[in-house]
Amino acid sequence: MARLADYFVVVGYDLDNRVEGEGQGRILQRFPEKDWEDSPFPQGIELFCQPSGWQLVPERQPASFFVAVLTDINSDRHYCACFTFWEGLDNPQLKKTETGDADEADEEPTVVQTPKVFAPKSLVVVSRLDYTEAFRNCLGLIYTVHVDSLSAPLETVIGNLLTCVIPIAGGSQIDESPVCSLDKVPQSPACDWLLACLQRGPEQREDSLRTITLGAGDRQVIQTPINDSLPVSGSSVAQLFRQLGIVNVLYLFCAALTEHKILFLSSSYQRLTDACRGLLAIMFPLQYSFTYVPILPGKLLEVLSTPTPFIIGVNSFFRSETQELLDVIIADLDGGTVTIPECLHISLLPEPLLQQTQTALSMVLDPELEFADQAFPPQSIQPSALKIQDKEIRAVFLWLFAQLFQGYRWCLHIIRIHPEPVIRFHKAAFLGQRSLTEDDFLMKVLDGMAFAGFVSERGPPYRATDLFDDLVANQVERIRQEEACPHKVMNHIKELAEQLFKNENPYPAVAMHKVQRPSENSQNTGKSQTPFPVLDDVAVQLFIDHAVAKLKTAPPVVKAELKSMVPSGPLLGDIVDRNGNVMANSARRLEVVRNCITYIFENKMLEAKKLMPAVLRALKGRTARVCLTQELNQHVLQNRAVLDDQQFDYIVRMMNCTLQDCSHMDEHGIAAALLPLVTAFCRKLGAGVTQFAYSCVQEHMVWTNMQFWEAMFYGDVQNHIKALYMEDRGQQKDSQDQQEGSANKREISALELAAEQNRLWPTLNKELQMERVQKEESTVFSQAIHYANRMSYLLLPLDTSKNRLLRSSGLGDVESVSNSYVTNSIAGSMAESYDTESGFEDAESSDVANSVVRFINRFVDKVCNESGVTNEHLKALHTMIPDIVQMHIETLDAVHRESKRLPPIQKPKLLSPTLLPGEELVMDGMRVHLILDGREEATGHMGGPPLLPAEGAIFLTTYRLIFKGTPSDALVGEQIVTRSFPVASLTKEKRISVTLPLDQFVQEGLQLRSCTFQLMKIAFDEEVASDLAESFRKHLHKLRFPQHVQGTFAFTVGQSGKLVLEPKTKDKNQSLKTLSKNLVKNAKRTISRQYVTRKKESPPTWENRSSLQSELDEDEISVSEEVDQSALTLSSTIRSSDRQTMSNIVERACCRDYQRLGLGTLSSSLTRSKNEPFRISTANRMYSVCRSYPGLLIIPQNIPDSSIHRICRCYRQNRFPVVCWRHSRSKAVLLRSAGLHAKGVVSFFKSPNAPTSVPSQADSTSLEQEKYLQAIISSMPSYSESTGRNTLSGFTSTHMNTSDSSDKLRQPKIGDLMKQVLGNKEDVPGTFSRGGKWGSIRGSGRLSAYNPDIGTRLAGKESPQPNGGPNDPLFLRQQKTYLYIIGDKAQLKGGKQESFQYWEVIPIEVCDVRQVKNSFKKLMKACVPSSPTSDPNMSFLRLLEDSEWMALLHRVLQVSVLVVELLDTGSSVMVSLEDGWDVTTQVVSLVQLLSDPYYRTFDGFRLLIEKEWLSFGHKFSHRGAQTLGSQSSGFTPIFLQFLDCVHQIHLQFPMEFEFSQYYLKFLAYHYMSNRFRTFLLDSDYDRIELGVLYEEKSDRKHPQVCKSVWDFIDRLNKKAPIFYNYMYSPEDEEVLRPYTFISNLKVWDFYLEETLSEGPPYDWELRSRHERLAEETVEKADTGAPKSQRHIVWPCYDSLSKVMPDAITKLLQDLQNLEAELGLTSEKWKDTWDKIKTTQRTESKLESKPSFSSSLLMSSNLSHQRRSHGVCLQESGVGSSIKLGLDCEASTTSTPVAGRPSTSTLYSQFQSTESENRSFEGILYKRGALLKPWKPRWFVLDKTKHQLRYYDSRQDKVCKGVIELSEVESVTVGTPTMGSPKNVEEKAFFDLKTAKRVYNFCAQESSNAQLWMDSIQSSLSDA
């Protein structure tokens, strides 16, 4: 029984205590005055009566009623029903002037017209029961009695209210009659009424119905709920859904369960209370246990910023104050919105539950929805009445919880039965069995406080049960079957709703309310009411005392609670195998696991080894893991199983594999099942030393998880306690069991046992009770000792100096405190304060023993406190733990010592790698595992076995990082896996932690990525100490970023191997200072002496910064500018003292090329004709003009060197425009320069004819620049012809015609090209009136280069007048643009082009260096992903597109093709982009490659790279991040991008290139590898400074070490045709125009291919060594058995080109082998090839019809070929003959591609490099032209062609020069001259005199000379 009301309070406005206009309330009277013992008076009621504040108002307000809820310190809720009405009083402002107070009881209106104000007064009932309607009626009645002055005294009514007692829940006391039922209250004085009450007859009435009356002629029925545990909701839940909608309420529901803060807003207080009540009702069976304030007074708003979760309601009046709350979910009941802040993530219900719940709710709330689309909807589908609907919604949530918590009772651990049941929930097992470990929502709910309360309330097995218990136990099966069918679900919900409604309204028919309301006139009357009177305390107290006395005398109420055993429901395992991942053919897998274990224990190790990989794969599945634990269990006898070493090793591997896939929660209980096994399996190490399995399976996170240990402990305790009682039970029941043996099959569960014991407990006597309590307690205690031991086994590492596990997990994480009542929002703040002994200290102290002791102590404290262990026992435990740990450490030390002596088991032998000559090991091999990355090749998915993971060693050498090992999968066989990359190409190194599939340890690892498109993920074996791994990283870093270029492998090769000492240069700008001291010798050799002067230190002035003036230490070289100026006169004569130096420079590639192109020679000034338009300037030979340019530059003939110094200042980095190539036909030139400085831009746009008076200093440079450009234009023959003023005297161009018909064809394309390059396709002529844009203004007033019209203008057609300018004949005269300047769009802003300039600027957007760098990073990640992914957004093609690499190639190629077109039409082009060394170099090189066939040969391509990339200063070291200084700038592969472009062109024109694709890959690889010095420094200047520019061809000490990549290629090319392209068949003067669209570009296979058998195939010596080794092993093995010709080729493992060489290579190899067998000296492959080609051609000439085979020998993409060159191999019985269709019609197979000139040409003019007729050949020394030394050459006398040709060497195929015999006048004996070869007889010299010059020759001996002279003489006479 409980009181209906605890207190009655009258609260009024406090007139005396007004604070700054803020009114206060105060309690005027309260009954009873004294607090009840069981329910103290709640504080602060006056705040809650007026939540918005106490105020006086000018008009009377209607009376109001609401219920506020206050929670006391014991978390009991008090319901305060507030009834507020308004009483008039005189205005206090006016009252201040008066003296006396008005009489309160005065009813007459005052005569004085003082303004009235109204003050609130509240009547409050405080109760612990929530009967809103009853309170509303009672308070309304009291107010009515007062207002209408009814006869009943107020004291009586209030006294009756306070003494009314009702039952808490129905059915609890059926026979008991009420103490003081107010059924029949006579209208008489209170005392009589009371007596009448006390003398009631034994009237029986059901208790769930209680009629009360307060003695004012009223009656009301209070229906108490049948079951108290179910909440009473009225219609509040339905209202909540109506106000907010389904989705919003579900959000609130999930937020409340996952402990978020929720705030309701409404302008109605009662609605706030109802909404909060509704939200709590749907959370049943969980109870909300945080702050709950349905109505929060305005004065307490700061409560909202509390860190704990809450559900609070606030009046909308305070909405603005709630705006800045960042972590609160705000539900606006009036507006129907729920606002969730961005920073909050609300976990929603798991699918499909969420969907099902929403469906069910919409069927309840909106039943019409289902029929909305039907043609004949049912007549009446109305939603149920609100009260019913309310219960239906609650039923949906009950149904939801039954699904969420189904089977929860099977995861309860009962750890004590007596004196009180202690129960714990095993969360991990529950989640694991439900397969919901990933589910965020359920995880949070189970960790929350509400669920903890749920477990403690519903856990006990013997108690009263309710609707939810029945649902979750007995109806789970029904729910499962029906969940797919919404209508069946609906029926179930309706049934549940009915029960809920019945519980709340046991007698829905009985509704007797007879309560008077105040009369209308008393509410609306204008006359002032009397104030509420002061009540008589004594009268009210008398009532209360009487009632109390009666209760004391009444017999005690015995609640006959119906306790019963709580049913557990079906087992979890049966419920959920719907999505418990059952693996395919799992039975077979289990069979494999069982067999393997049997083999191990039967000692059939070989069989076990074969099965092992399959077992390890099977153990990914849960069933297999469970099977493993069961199988192993069977081999344990008396808790022990001794194994031998190999068995032990296998068992441990399987255990590790099993544990590896368990999460730290161990949701499937695998770790729990293994725990007893790891202490059972052991092996004997030595005398008395045994190693147990636990020392090998410690590396798993599960062992550091406190929750795991607790669950394990509680599980074991439960089993022991169960055993304790089963014994007793067994003794009693033995006799019974025999009779009903069959019926009692099922084992009784611990909860059932506990329920039975709880039922019997009251019947036991004290001694028995005590005995049971003690038995249980000692059981728990003994388990605690056992677990302290177990934990020390698994937490103390074998080597106690290493403590990987504890340190990494920090053993004191908050997470490890299970179910600690820490909510999401406080967890953060508690983490620091939770436990001072947390894992943060462990990391520093790393004292293993202490951290383990602390961990175990914390565990013991927690479990012993929870399971009620006595304090004495707890103390004993704490003293024991350190001893246990210490003892265990001692035994471990012995084990560790002995285990060190064990022979290592079966670890594969470490294979040593083959090294290059000069490459040396820096660190010996460390055992590592190479792990799979994201590439599929090695996994076995693409065919072939899984090669990775592999076990082997990693070696660090001075040049490479090499992994060499064997696959871990034993079935793969004896393959050797090799992966390597040059150290210099390492781009990223990061630490990873790796779990190996076989050993299961979490290992330290490294992920190393290289820009040669290689990735190594390695995990260090446990035998590698972590400090060794660390030193490996340091060494690697040191080698990757040496302090100076001289530290790179190319320089240190052959020096002593262990780490190279860096040159100790403190000076960062060393290279900027100037030629350093150690190179003075070099400089003297390179620089003419008169420029070298000694000089005192003088800091350079700013102006001279660009020259080489700078200071060195004591003796230094500097170049004085004065000397320069005087010396470099216009004539630029070369002094005799320079000649030695110049000869070196002349030998450089640039000069050879300039001479080939006819761009000026370096003969003496007398012989050079002034007619040549260009000259070679030596202005920069000291690198004083521009440090990044070569020493010799081509500039216009009439520009003096002195002006160059001024011109170069306009350009960035002083890189002024120089000529680098000239078109052989149109004589247009290609220039390169850097972009202009801002001031330099102006001169691009000045008119050359603008009249200028005396030029100012500022103008002079731009004038110089203008002159310079003009000089270039003047050099072009087309210019001199068209202008008529031939400025170049004597220079005419008779042999060329500018208006070539082929040009006409090509011209229109240029406009399109330009449009594409400029990227503006849509512009139309009408848009050009804005002015100030690019483009020349030849044909019109203002025409822009964006104009699509530009093409027509280039073609010589007129263009329309877009802006109606004057049609002046001047404008109509078409002028040609002689020079196009390709500049950077961003830079060339703001210039206006004058109309009569001969040059035009084309602004383009270039790709920034940063773009290239980022794009390359993404490309690497796309081609070599670090981990496998199934995300479609991470697929290769998507990543490739995101990298934009192809787009960048497209842009570079597009610009290059545009330039080629312009040059071809006879306009010169100047490429002037960025600093002139990145994009400029790419474009210029590609243009020359496309335009000039020479550059597509070996020599030409080498020359192109040496000239454009090396001499013109592409910053290889900086862009390649080769040294410590450039480390931060990162790797930017500008050169690789260029090679990729060449590769794209090669694919489209496979017959135009002498070199193969492999050649390009080879260059790409070694550009990044630092193996050669070629691609190392940033400019020729740097190379001279280091003395590497003119070094000897090869090193004397190490002849096999090539310093230049070109030498290496030459050598290799002589040995093997690997670089040669057999399809090479060039057309004469062919200009290539490749397609540049992205769709035409292919991903270069260089980025994708990998060969695991030997590593990258670009270090050729390694390949040959491999082959030699392989042959040796084969020879040994060969016993004469017939050998199979078959060979298995594996993708990714074998190199296809090696295993299956192309036919020609194979035939050449066969020839060589045959020659070797016959003992002939083998001929060079090139000679053989050329002979075959020659015979082939002569044969085809003889045939009448050209033979042609369309099947191309080389597999290459010929989609864009304009002719085909067939090569066909005919296999005949006799032998193989090669047919090369060289002379054939192209038109037979290829159709001309649109937009290209089709060329069908006969190849009769095909020039063979070797002539058919060699009359005589041999080596002669020839004296070179002026300044050149004697050189040995291979001379060939050809009588047929009547020529004497000479070559660089015998193998050389390109003729270096020809002496026509027809021009020879005489052959005479010669004399030795200066510089001739030493030690040669005089008679060996002879001279050849021609009409032009005399050739001096020298043979090896005189006889040889005589032979030559005779042969030549005879040829002459023949002629």
Can you put this structure into words, describing what you see?
The protein has 1919 residues and is an alpha+beta fold. Helix content is 38%, strand content 14%. It is built from 61 helices and 47 strands. The strands form 13 sheets. The chain has a seven-stranded antiparallel beta sheet with strand order 26-25-24-23-29-28-27, covered by helices on one side. It has a seven-stranded antiparallel beta sheet with strand order 44-43-42-41-47-46-45, with helices on one face. Strands 3-2-6-5-4 form a five-stranded antiparallel beta sheet. Helix 22 packs parallel to helix 24, helix 50 (1479-1491) packs parallel to helix 53 and helix 53 runs antiparallel to helix 54 (1557-1569). About 20% of the residues have low confidence.
Helix/strand layout:
Layout: E1 2-3, E2 7-19, E3 22-31, H1 45-49, E4 64-71, E5 77-90, H2 92-95, E6 116-127, H3 132-147, H4 154-163, E7 165-166, H5 190-198, E8 209-212, E9 219-223, H6 236-244, H7 246-257, E10 261-266, H8 269-282, E11 291-293, E12 310-315, E13 328-332, E14 337-339, H9 353-365, H10 386-404, E15 412-416, E16 422-425, H11 427-433, H12 440-447, H13 449-458, E17 462-463, H14 467-474, H15 476-482, H16 486-504, E18 513-514, H17 520-524, H18 537-553, E19 564-565, H19 572-575, H20 586-601, H21 605-618, H22 622-634, E20 641-643, H23 645-660, H24 670-678, E21 681-686, E22 689-692, H25 706-739, H26 750-760, H27 766-795, H28 804-809, H29 824-833, H30 839-845, H31 848-866, H32 871-901, E23 921-931, E24 950-957, E25 960-967, E26 977-982, E27 986-995, E28 1002-1010, E29 1014-1020, H33 1026-1040, H34 1049-1052, H35 1070-1073, H36 1080-1086, E30 1092-1093, E31 1118-1119, H37 1121-1127, H38 1139-1147, H39 1149-1157, E32 1174-1177, E33 1193-1196, H40 1201-1207, E34 1218-1222, E35 1229-1233, H41 1238-1244, H42 1257-1274, H43 1277-1283, H44 1301-1318, H45 1350-1354, ...
Parallel strand pairs: 10-12, 10-13, 11-12, 20-21, 35-38, 36-37, 36-38
Antiparallel strand pairs: 1-7, 2-3, 2-6, 4-5, 5-6, 8-9, 9-18, 13-14, 15-16, 17-19, 21-22, 23-24, 23-29, 24-25, 25-26, 27-28, 28-29, 30-31, 32-33, 34-35, 39-40, 41-42, 41-47, 42-43, 43-44, 45-46, 46-47
Helix pairs in contact: 3-4, 4-18, 6-7, 6-8, 6-10, 9-10, 10-16, 20-21, 20-22, 21-23, 22-24, 25-26, 25-27, 27-31, 27-32, 31-32, 40-42, 41-42, 44-49, 47-48, 49-50, 49-53, 50-51, 50-53, 53-54
